[in-house]
Structure formats: C-alpha cells, structure tokens
Amino acid sequence: MQDAALRLKALMEQLLGAPLPVRIRAWDGSEAGPPESPVLVVRNRRALRRLLWKPGELGMARAWVAGDLTVDGDLYAVLDVMAELVWERGEDARTLREALRDPEVRAAVWGLVRMAGPPLPPAPPREEVRRRSHLHTKRSDRRAISHHYDVGNDFYEIVLGPSMVYSCAYWDSPDGTLEDAQRDKLGLVARKLGLKPGMRLLDVGCGWGSMAIHAAREYGVSVVGVTLSQEQAAYARKRVAEEGLTDRIEIRVQDYRDVTDGPYDAISSIGMAEHVGSDRYLEYARDLFALLKPGGRLLNHQIGRRPWGNESAYEIDEFIDAYVFPDGELAPIGGTVSGLEAAGFEVRDVESLREHYALTLRRWVANLEADWPTAVRLTSPGRARVWRLYMAASALAFERNRIGVNQVLAVKTPDTGTSGMPLRARSWR
Description:
Layout: H1 4-16, E1 23-25, E2 31-32, E3 39-42, H2 46-53, H3 57-66, E4 69-72, H4 75-86, H5 96-99, H6 103-116, H7 138-149, H8 153-160, H9 178-193, E5 200-204, H10 210-219, E6 222-227, H11 230-242, E7 249-253, E8 264-270, H12 281-291, E9 292-305, H13 318-324, H14 333-342, E10 346-352, H15 354-370, H16 372-378, H17 381-399, E11 403-411
Parallel strand pairs: 1-3, 5-6, 5-8, 6-7, 8-9
Antiparallel strand pairs: 1-2, 3-4, 9-11, 10-11
C-alpha cells in the first residue's frame, strides 16, 4: 500500500504543531498535502534518518546535498513556505530537549524512527566541512577560502557570467543585464573612493580581479589585489595580462594581515569582511586604517544580519558554515560601523543595497540552472546543489529583509579634520 507520504505528513505536522505548508511526495510514489502547494520530494528513507540524527537545518541540508530530498517545481516557493519552520526560528526556537518534553512530539519522533528504517546515521555528504574552530587564524582562513573559492574557475564562469564579480551588483532596473549592473557597481565603488590617475589602491579579497582591472583601466590607478585563493589569483593574473595592465596591477596570494607596503590612497574591501569574524573585526579595521594615507578612504562592502535581542545567543548558520562559507560570520550594520570607528575611521556614508543583492542572486541561480549539466560535471552533483540552495535561499532572505548588504565609506581623517570629502557626497562625481 502506497501511504508513506500520508504517514509522513501526519507525523511532521504532529512534530511541528502546525499544518505542513508543502505537498509531500514519498519514495513509494504516494503524495499528500495541499494539491496546489509546491512539492517536496522525499526520495528515500535515508532522508528521514538524516533529519532524525541532525534535526533542523543541518539535517535538511545534508539530505538536499546528498540528493535524498529535492523539489519538484519552484525551489523559491518551497523555500519561502518552509523557511519559517526550519531556517528562521532563530533565538525563539525551542531546543530539541525542550520539544521532546511534549508527549505528542515524542510520539511523532518515534513514528519517524519506525519509518526511517535502520537506525545508523548516514555519513555526511563529502562536500561538508568537518571542523568548527572559528579561530580565524591565517591557516584556518586560508583553508576556508580554498573550500569556497577553489571549486574551479569554469564553474564560477557559469554562475557569475562574464563579469566574474562575486558580490552584489548595482541595478538601475530589474530588467537590466547582470554584466551592466556589475560594471555599475565597480564604478560606484571607484567613485566613492575618489579614484584618480596616479593613486594607489589596495583591493582586499580581490577575487578574479574585476575591481582591480576596472580601477586601473577606467581610473588610471595602480592596484595591489590580495586573495587567499590560488585559483582566483591565477585567473586574475591571466585577465590582467590579457588587458595589458601588468604594469599597473599586481595580484598576490596573501593574507591582508601580511600586507606591509602601505600607505595606500584607497582600499576596497568588497564581500571580504564576512570572512574576518567578530573576534577579529577590530584587528581587521585597524590593519586597514594603518595601511591608508591620511585622508585615504576605505569602501567596506559587507553582508549584515538583523540584530538579535540577545546577541550572545547568536550562532553561525549551520548550513552556511558546513557547506558554503566555513567560519563566515555576519554582524549587524551597527557593529560594523562601531568597529570601523573604534579603529580610528570617520564613517562618512552608509548605503544599503539589500534589494540589489536579491536581484543579483536570482540571476546567478538562473545562470546555474540554465547550464546545470555542465556545472555538475565541473564540480559534483552535491556541490552544484549546495550553490543552488544557498543562492536561492539567500535571495529570499534579502528580499524579506532577513539579511542585508551595506557599503560603508570611511575616511582616515587627519587631526586637522580635513576629510577631503565633497560637501554633497551622494552624487559621487
């Protein structure tokens, strides 16, 4: 009798204490749930064992990456309706121990155990990082960056497109092209930094060299770009050579903490500070402050989260930590500004680009889905699933104001108080 979906739906609703907002299709072909709802496909009993051994986000992520769970139809729709139950319970979530005090919850768990089959825990997918140091040493940061970025430049070409910019674009209109929006973002950064011919720019976390190339080619500056990724550096150097800019751009595999050849006129840090860690943030800000000339500007482009009522209860997202950005941490924008000010910077402008990142992520997801077989071949099925889930879920998080992204412009203002900023800076001319 094909009834696994009906049984699973009843047990999940008993466990959650709420109606299941998706339709379930089980491994035996049965379906249950609202007929017009998005469909969550439970492909085998192993998916249940993953959820039982790691309840919540990490168990769901492991099942997804391994291919035990999938979606039939619109991934965004499934994520949107499931997010509140699984991914966004935050500081108000009950712990498993608290939940198991409820007899109905215990009964539901035992029902799932009986459905799941053999009790041994499945091995985590090979794409999972099995460490939890969060020390942000130079060695651990190098490994974390390698895990995320050294997955193959060909794979990133599929996702990012010709711009090869892995950060939020800057859109005039949702109907614009990704390439134009990324070019406009690089131009925005350059204008905020006040780049002019002859200036010296440090690009921290330079990625595949796009900001360095734009600054040197369009503004006539000399650039040092630093990254911890060997693959990024090789790709960036090749691009620099093809542009004929080797006399103006140097790409280094180097930790920002080891840069000692300042002072620089300006520093760009685009999508890099999320890797620094809260315990190291003041060190990061002080190091960049020391590398700037008096009057020099820093443009810090960084993802931020909403503040928690009890900040000590905040924990790093399990899925992101295990599969995407090991040791990555998000901080509220207030903490970012305070850290920069504590290091000596004068913060002159804060601009939110939250909606811009949602648009960017949806384009990246579309790029990945459009060339899915090639992406799988270049990496692995699990790795491609990681990026699809991570980017789609992140797009929704930006759209719903659960996370944001901000450009903070800060100046190393000298004792004279002469910042060098225009009186009406927002025109960025």
